């Protein structure tokens, strides 16, 4: 089976059961500061999981592009990926546990022809805050699974959510493929890491909303949210032992073998290069056009690109082949994800820029890192000789005292200060320093590095911490008001700066909004004052926000604008603030502009080439 056939089979199966297909959303969640990337298919659907009406109904299905940064260090094994495609189906207050697991079981056993005896499932065992999920366990038994195929785990294994501090959450049932290996011990089960079991599907039952105080309240609308990893299922169905043997990676793996002929390029390194090239191609190909930087999504992108460059150079290969490898990914996926073809020039240009930038800093960074490690090795050898003094601190620089302390010598540890100096002065990623140290038999004082990093990046650290403080996942009145304010802001910018201004992304938490837009120069103070005045004028007029549902073509003909015109389903929501804004958007929104209070711009700055950023707040009129 090919990946295309699997995607089509999955979507067709659920369409036949009343689900409407929705397109894959951006890899960057709109207006959601709780995460850097879309990590699951539910992110674009949070408002609807919390009660908003979806224009396509209560049963939905799709194949969603995802990025998970938590798995970066696991990449190179048989299953973990940073970029992957998640096949999903949802019930927004329609069917629930029994029908959900029944459909999953039918698809796996009747359509993918996986023997039932090769399946294992987990269910929530219950705790002091929520009862055991006996209903799901019984549903699996009725389908024919034996008691020994059903495992019960606690919150760590079988509870999903919320994404941020608050939001929808509930018990889940995870479905695993049993490779048939012997059990590694008496307690071997799906939670074990021995490789006997691999998770392929997760059915989440969203029963609760987690409140600010940590308590759980039952949702009026009980939902089902499922996700199945396309790469893992493709591996299993085709009898492969790992994802890199599938058609999704074989072309890249074979090309790397050709490029590395006669050179030492370990299998794990080839896997990391292939996986990271695919991930960075999709991130750069996203319509929101994230570029490499030292913060947030841009930092993850830069980290992945630079890791590829370093691995290629370590093997003595031309790191300039990165663009050629990315072009292979574009050609492989452009029919399924047209944005890759549309953004081909941008993707390759940004990779070339980052390659040139990193090449200039990598040589000096490597030289300095090896010097520090050579000195650390010499210091360790000296320390092993009775009656000798430690290496003088000046050999490593004035900031290296920590590296030469007795405690550091015992563990052959490079100081956090030196690791941060490599990062800050030479642009050398901490991950590379750690890898180099491991290769030389040393470790890095990561806690010391983090302390120095936080001191230097206090503003970024605070902003990063805010990623888990709220967002549309909270679905609060304040976030709805701020979301409405972004519509007014976009309309005001077009009035003042010209209709060519377009939204390039936004980010909202409970305190402020951040709005990115295309514009080639700094916005003047006078222009910002005009924009602020227009937004406050709309607020003072207390205009009703009008909601309509229509096909996207009709929406565009009516003058509605949207960020990703090719990414909408058969029906869309259009929110209109007469005289100021008409946009395709999912919500949530205030009912009337008068609810917003006062609008104030805090800052205008560059976000990336050709993109400006405004940060603003809403304030009560009395303040």
Features:
single chain, 623 residues, alpha+beta, four-stranded antiparallel β-sheet, 20 helices
Biggest β-sheet: count, sense, barrel?
A: 9 strands, mixed
Count of alpha and pi helical runs: 20
Rg estimate, integer Å: 26 Å
Secondary structure category: alpha+beta
Instruction: Estimate percent helicity.
Output: 25-40%
Q: Judging from the principal axes of the Cα atoms, what is the shape?
A: globular
Which residues sit in consecutive blocks of at least 5 with pLDDT less than 50? 387-410, 459-473
Distance between the termini: 63 Å
Share of residues in strands: 15-25%
What average pLDDT do the residues reach? 85
Number of strands: 18
Describe the model:
It is a single chain. The protein has 623 residues and is an alpha+beta fold. The protein contains 20 helices and 18 strands. It has helices at residues 3-15, 46-49, 97-111, 134-143, 155-158, 230-237, 250-259, 267-285, 296-314, 322-333, 338-342, 344-384, 406-411, 416-426, 430-439, 446-456, 458-465, 477-497, 525-540, 552-557; strands at residues 20-21, 59-67, 83-92, 119-124, 150-153, 159-160, 167-178, 197-210, 216-229, 413-414, 443-444, 503-508, 513-518, 546-550, 572-577, 581-584, 598-608, 611-619. Strands 1, 2, 3, 4, 5, 6, 7, 8 and 9 form a 9-stranded mixed sheet that branches. Helix 3 (97-111) runs parallel beside helix 4 (134-143), helix 9 packs across helix 12 (344-384) and helix 14 (416-426) packs across helix 16 (446-456). The longest helix has 41 residues, at 344-384.
């Amino acid at each position: 089976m090919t990946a295309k056939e699997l995607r089509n089979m999955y979507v067709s199966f659920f369409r036949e059961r009343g689900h409407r297909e929705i397109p894959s959303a951006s890899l960057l969640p709109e207006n959601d500061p709780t995460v850097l990337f879309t990590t699951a298919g539910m992110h674009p659907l949070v408002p609807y999981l919390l009660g908003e009406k979806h224009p396509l109904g209560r049963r939905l299905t799709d194949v969603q592009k995802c990025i998970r940064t938590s798995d970066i260090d696991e990449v190179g094994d048989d299953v973990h990926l940073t970029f992957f495609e998640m096949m999903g189906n949802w019930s927004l207050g329609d069917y629930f546990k029994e029908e959900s697991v029944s459909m999953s079981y039918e698809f796996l056993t009747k359509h993918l022809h996986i023997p039932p005896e090769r399946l294992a499932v987990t269910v929530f065992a219950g705790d002091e805050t929520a009862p055991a999920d006996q209903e799901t366990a019984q549903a699996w038994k009725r389908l024919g699974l034996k008691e020994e195929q059903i495992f019960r785990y606690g919150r760590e294994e079988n509870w999903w959510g919320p994404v941020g501090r608050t939001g929808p959450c509930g018990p889940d049932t995870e479905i695993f493929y049993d490779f048939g290996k012997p059990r590694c011990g008496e307690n071997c089960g799906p939670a074990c890491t021995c490789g006997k079991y691999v998770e392929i599907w997760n059915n989440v039952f969203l029963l609760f909303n987690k409140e600010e105080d940590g308590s759980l309240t039952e949702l009026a609308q009980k939902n089902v949210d499922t996700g199945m990893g396309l790469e893992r299922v493709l591996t299993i169905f085709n009898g492969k032992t790992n994802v890199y043997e599938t058609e999704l990676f074989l072309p890249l793996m074979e090309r790397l073998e050709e490029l590395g002929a006669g050179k030492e390029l370990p299998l794990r390194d080839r896997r990391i290069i292939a996986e990271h090239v695919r991930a960075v191609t999709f991130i750069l190909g996203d319509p929101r056009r994230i570029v490499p930087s030292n913060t947030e999504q841009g930092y993850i992108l830069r980290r992945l690109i630079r890791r590829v460059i370093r691995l290629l150079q370590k093997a003595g290969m031309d790191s300039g082949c990165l663009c050629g490898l990315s072009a292979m990914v574009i050609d492989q996926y452009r029919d399924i994800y047209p944005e890759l073809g549309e953004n081909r020039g941008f993707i390759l240009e940004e990779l070339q820029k980052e390659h040139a930038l990193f090449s200039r800093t990598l040589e000096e960074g490597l030289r300095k890192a090896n010097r520090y490690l050579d000195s650390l090795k010499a210091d360790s050898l000296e320390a092993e000789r009775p009656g000798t003094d430690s290496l003088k601190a000046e050999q490593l620089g004035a900031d290296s005292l920590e590296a030469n302390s007795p405690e550091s010598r015992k563990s052959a540890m490079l100081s956090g200060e030196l690791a941060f100096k490599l990062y800050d002065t030479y642009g050398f990623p901490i991950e590379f320093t750690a890898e180099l140290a491991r290769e030389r038999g040393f470790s890095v004082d990561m806690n010391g590095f983090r302390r120095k990093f936080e001191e230097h990046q206090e503003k970024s650290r605070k902003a990063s911490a805010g990623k888990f403080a709220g967002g549309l996942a909270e679905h609060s009145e304040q976030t709805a008001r701020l979301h409405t304010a972004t519509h007014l802001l976009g309309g005001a910018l077009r009035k003042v700066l010209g209709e060519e201004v377009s939204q390039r992304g936004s980010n909202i938490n409970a305190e402020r909004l951040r709005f990115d837009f295309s514009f080639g120069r700094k916005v003047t103070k006078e222009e910002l004052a005009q924009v602020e005045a227009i937004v406050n004028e709309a607020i003072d007029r207390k205009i009703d926000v009008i909601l309509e549902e229509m096909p996207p073509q009709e929406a565009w003909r009516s003058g509605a604008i949207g960020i990703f015109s090719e990414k909408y389903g058969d029906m869309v929501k259009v929110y209109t603030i007469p005289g100021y804004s008409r946009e395709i958007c999912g919500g949530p929104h205030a009912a009337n502009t008068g609810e917003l209070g006062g609008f104030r711009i805090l800052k205008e700055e560059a976000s990336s080439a050709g993109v400006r950023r405004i940060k603003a707040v809403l304030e009560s009129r009395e303040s």
